[in-house]
Amino acid sequence: MRRPSLTLGLVPFAVLAAACSSSPSSAPSTGSVHQLAASLDPSQVVDPTTGSTVAVPSSLSGAAGTFTGTVDSASRRLAWHLSFQGLGTPSVVIADVHYGATGSFGRLLVRLCGPCRSSRPSGTVSVPATGTSALVSGGAWVTVNTATYPNGAIRGQITSH
Asked: In CATH, what class is 31-160?
């Protein structure tokens, strides 16, 4: 009498195990990519101690900027582009993203550049898990600071679309 082959009995299990396993490098991203944008101007700057908007100084009357980017919720990577003008001298010191709703001040979410070496910087940075949801839900803003205006020369609320 012949015994059934044990090898044939294990084949379905091997196929099932291979189908269920996946390599992290070949697995598709399960998160979604969100498009982000903000228009920056001096009228949106908020004083960090009082929480009120700051009067626009005449030296910043022509200051403006734009922020665009994408954030991937799976990799928690923010790819960003910034442009600004009319900030005077000295040149830009830093650009940051902070947590916070429109008209409020909040803690730092991520530094974009510091010092920013051009008026059109760009890059990619990692964001904390809470940062991804803040960026997508409108709970974050971007600011450009100079030595003259260390709390912000221009600011804009980030929206997702």
From this structure: mainly beta
